[in-house]
């Protein structure tokens, strides 16, 4: 009787070992399954993050970490990485070229790139430099029309308004021509009152004499009318070269160049002589001559 009992115990022990092994294998397989499943989930999550990233390092890290990822995932990441490398290469080329055309081309090729904002800043700066170098009202106007939110819009607008204010208009030419016509007619006619109305109390230069007074100008007028001079006429040629200059905020004067002919008759017989002078002058915002120099032109 004892032998059968030992046999049963032995069989029960073997069965227990087998059951334990089966359970252990199940646990191992379940562990492997869950581990593999977690790896797949991690890889899928990493793939989703990488494929939308604009950082080449993120994409390269995926390829380095997930060498056994599905081929479709790795191929997609490689394609995306190559595209980003191409964008960076094109950006470097644009920066090296540093021209509006190069940055415009980059924006057209890669409108979704993170460099688009930077390209816009570069274009804005280049257009501003071009406008400043040209320094015309049209150039500043063109900049403002193309860059309503540009970094230099206010500067461009101020420069535009100043240049517009300095443009020579028909009324400017009329003021200048009438002023100098009155001045030279006063000289010719010995009209002290008219002469005084055209000049500043002190001229910075009159016939190359610095700080000349009205008395100095009147003295010149008297000298013109020497004892034997019977008649003097001045005839501006009309070749007015006028520059409007800003002297203070909101105040503008003129720099003027023109030629004028002086016709003189002497003696009872009316002997005639003529000379042509090149005149360089300045006019104050109040419309008074502040500088006047003349140089005889060789005929």
What's the mean pLDDT score?
90
Structural class: alpha+beta
Evaluate the radius of gyration. 46 Å
Give the DSSP E fraction (strand runs of 2 or more residues). Answer: 15-25%
- Tally of individual helices: 10
Task: Find the count of extended strands (DSSP E, 2+ residues).
Answer: 7
N→C terminal distance: 158 Å
Give a structural overview:
The protein has about 300 residues and is an alpha+beta fold. The chain contains 10 helices and 7 strands. Helix 3 packs antiparallel against helix 4, helix 4 runs antiparallel to helix 5 and helix 8 (about 170-190) packs antiparallel against helix 9. It is rod-shaped and about 175 Å long. It starts with a helix and ends with a strand. The model has no long low-confidence stretch (mean pLDDT about 90).
Give a concise summary.
This protein is α+β, with helices and mostly antiparallel strands. The protein has ten helices and seven strands. The mean pLDDT is 90.
Keywords:
299 residues, alpha+beta, 7-stranded mixed beta sheet, 10 helices, 7 strands
List the helices and strands and how they pair.
Layout: H1 2-51, H2 56-65, H3 71-97, H4 100-109, H5 116-134, H6 137-146, H7 153-166, H8 170-189, H9 192-198, E1 202-206, E2 209-213, H10 214-224, E3 229-236, E4 241-248, E5 251-266, E6 271-283, E7 289-296
Parallel strand pairs: 1-7
Antiparallel strand pairs: 1-2, 3-5, 4-5, 5-6, 6-7
């Amino acid at each position: 009787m004892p032998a059968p009992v030992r046999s049963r115990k032995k069989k029960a022990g073997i069965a227990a070992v087998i059951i334990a092994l089966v359970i252990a294998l199940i646990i191992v397989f379940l562990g492997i399954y869950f581990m593999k499943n977690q790896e797949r989930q991690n890889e899928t999550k990493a793939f989703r993050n990488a494929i939308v990233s604009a950082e080449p390092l993120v994409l390269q890290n995926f390829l380095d970490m997930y060498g056994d990822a599905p081929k479709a995932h790795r191929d997609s990441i490689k394609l995306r990485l190559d595209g980003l490398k191409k964008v960076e290469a094109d950006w470097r080329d644009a920066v090296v070229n540093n021209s509006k055309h190069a940055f415009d081309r980059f924006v057209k090729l890669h409108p979704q790139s993170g460099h688009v904002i930077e390209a816009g800043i570069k274009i804005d700066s280049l257009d501003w430099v071009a406008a400043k170098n040209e320094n015309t009202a049209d150039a500043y106007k063109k900049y403002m029309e193309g860059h309503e939110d540009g970094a230099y819009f206010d500067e461009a607008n101020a420069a535009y308004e100043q240049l517009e204010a300095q443009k020579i208009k028909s009324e400017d030419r009329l003021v200048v021509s009438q002023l100098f016509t009155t001045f030279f007619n006063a000289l010719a006619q010995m009209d002290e009152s008219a002469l005084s109305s055209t000049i500043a109390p002190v001229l910075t230069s009159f016939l190359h004499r610095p700080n000349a007074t009205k008395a100095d100008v009147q003295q010149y007028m008297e000298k013109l009318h020497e004892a034997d001079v019977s008649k003097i006429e001045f005839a501006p040629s009309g070749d007015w070269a006028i520059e409007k200059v800003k002297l203070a905020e909101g105040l503008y004067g003129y720099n003027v160049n023109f030629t004028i002919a002086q016709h003189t008759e002497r003696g009872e017989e009316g002997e005639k002589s003529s000379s042509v002078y090149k005149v360089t002058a300045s006019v104050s915002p109040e419309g008074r001559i502040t500088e006047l120099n003349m140089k005889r032109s060789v005929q």
